[in-house]
Amino acid sequence: MNARRAVVIGAGPAGLLAAAALAPAVAEVVVLDHDELPEAPAHRRGVPQSRHAHLLMPGGMAVMEELLPGADLRGRLVAAGARETALSSDLLALAPTGWFRRWRHRTFITMTASRPLLEWGVRRAVLEANPQITVRRARVSGLRGSARRVTGVRLAGADGGPPEDLDADWVVDASGRGTRLLPWLDVLGVGGIRERHVDSGLANATRVYRVPPGAPDWPMTLVQADPWSGRPGRSGMIVPIEDGRWMVSLGGMRGSEPPKDPDAFVAWALNLPSPLVGRLIEAAEPLGPVHVSRSTSNSRRYLEDARLWPERLVAIGDAAATFNPIYGQGMSAAALGARALAQAVREHGIEAPGLARRVQRTVARAARGAWTAAVSTDVLYPGVEGARPTVGDRLAAAYSRRLNHAATGSYAAACALWDVTTLRTSPARLFRPDALLHALTGAPLPALSGPPLTAAERDFLSGLKPWV
Predict the structure, then answer these.
(1) Has residue 174 been placed in a domain?
(2) What would the pLDDT profile of 11-37 be if each residue is shown by its tens digit?
(3) The CATH number of the domain where 305 resides is what?
(4) pLDDT (0 to 100) of residue 453
(5) DSSP for 64-100?
(6) Among 263, 407, 410, 418, which is most buried by a count of CB atoms within 10 Å?
(7) Cα dist. 466→62, 213, 245, 259 in Å?
(8) What local confidence, expressed as pLDDT, does residue 426 receive?
């Protein structure tokens, strides 16, 4: 072990998992973040989507547990109140093609909790398993080194004091959507990196409610946006989280944004293609205001194609590619990037020449599935900025619609979709022979006329009264 110190910029899940990936190969890892990290789960100013619904997909959870062997991350989160939802059986989902069935199989287990709880659980697991990782509050103002190799970072002076240089044998940028990586690289002489931004104009409006009496195990409920209608997409979801609460997120694309006014929030939900979300929250006690965010665009920096790339520098997570959060893939994609870093370090050694470029290319491949899924859907909405649907996009949309229709009445077709949307496998899964056959033949079971409720859920719903 020749490398002494690695520096990771950003203490969110992407940064902490990157720190865990590097920890076996260096003497110390210093994680830098401009926020003061709370001892218990709490919102941070530096996390723009902190107030909105988060899903930890099965693909992401599997990778996190691989990076943190023996930490029992799943058990920690459940013990702290996170909920496990089987997409196959515990989800009420209305797609544009109809209601999905609930199957006997309990598969595609997805973790639901507030972002602060998920982040806190990952942070505790990483730090307890890796004593050589420390977290320090600081604001990074630039990189040190040259176009050939990064040698550390520059820290902004605290309280107006002089800047500080921090040497590092490796630097990972996991600073999120607000990354300053491209300007920092320009200073080192690394420029000309292509970017792409695709913005559907999504606005998220979220409010937390107390679960009504009689519904402690009400399933996650989702009314999906319709990318094929030619109108702005509108969606709503109820996500069960810790402490007997529902996190309710409404999403509207440009031209149909959800309101911040509490009364209008409920009315907007009642006017979705199904009023189910609105009826449920009408009977639930609100626990706070409506929070709105518009930090939702898809942005990709093609770092892997840079003509020059410094040794010992990698960007992962949102610092490399960000996705519309409505698809719930951000944390899982970041975990895939951290795994790419861990595998490369383990196989080639942390001081191998060209390792940083090799890792950056692998990170790009790992993020490609989430990027393709998000952008190929967002580009279909009217008013999208940064792209227009091509003939290929429209053909893919037509195929996707057929497969989605088949999935409403076929467990196998639904599994093909869930394999991709939960990042268990690449989008190529949708074009395997079994998926192609289902798309061609359609749903073997008839369409449902309403949500697939159990008898107990139906009784609860029939007795709902507006909360006062």
Answers:
(1) yes
(2) 999 999 999 999 999 999 999 999 999
(3) 3.50.50.60
(4) 97
(5) HHHHSTTS-HHHHHHHTT-EEEETTTSEEEEETTEEP
(6) 407
(7) 40, 13, 17, 20
(8) 86
